[in-house]
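Folding Problem: From Residues to Backbone Shape
Fields: amino acid sequence; protein backbone structure tokens
RECORD BEGINS BELOW THIS LINE
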Amino acid sequence: MSGYRPGLFAIFAAAAVAVFLLMPLLAIVPVSFTHTRYLAMPQGQLSLRHYRELIDNPDWLNSALLSLRVGLVSSAVATILATAFGLGIWMFRPRLAALLVGFVLLPMVVPPVVSAMTLYFLLTTLSGFNDIVGYDSWLGVALAHVVMIAPFAVVLVLVALSQLDRRIDLAARGMGASVAQRAFRVILPNIKFGILTAALLSFVLSWEEIGVTLFITSVNAVTLPRLIWMGLHDNIDPAIAAVSVLLITVTILVLLTRLLIQGRRPIAWSSRARHRRQLSARRDQAEG
């Protein structure tokens, strides 16, 4: 049966919507090459001064490294917690599973301002006991990001577990496997792509988080989104457009890499299936 092929009007409509959504992003590119000290379209003269400022000004590099550190730590912790929670719900099926899931997903439905104020009071309280995890510290920012991004990781892990055949776990339990063996040798290998997706989404959410970060940081823990916000709020710095272009470029490269990996995966699967069929045919010939 032949697959569905979109018509000319559908292709044109999709292209028009894509152009409409990408126009604001594309408008940033020429602005980043302006020679003026404010955000404006270049008037016949292009300049790389704002890209040079990203290199000369250490604040941009320090903020990017801080955002990278916070994103890696918070996404790793959130993914581990989400995986452990999902495994517990899926394997043991407690009576209050729906209530527990709803409680974990509360940061997704609570207004961000409420979450920001709650985390602000929590971190200021912790600052009275230590100087490591508290207000305006990078570990405090990472802790707040874990609270905000963990629900999204939980959703992705639960979705991956819902697609797993429960009979696999029942077979492992029937063969005498312990809980740890069932979790690490049976269940986790079958949901590894869901866990990787949860980790990637958690990192992206932590990297771009700004609402809560504005409440829990001041001058010491300045992440890249906060530095961009400060540049827009205090003085409209064209270097922000240069940073935006670099982030868009990195995003496009990551998406292209993901598409290439997905394109090669079916080829690898088909070659493995062909190899298995050849081995099966040789086995049948040997038995015959």
Remarks:
- Residues 57-241 form a domain with the MetI-like fold fold (CATH 1.10.3720.10).
- Residues 239-287 form the longest helix (49 residues).
- The CA atoms of residues 268 and 274 lie 10 Å apart.
- The chain has a mean pLDDT of 85.
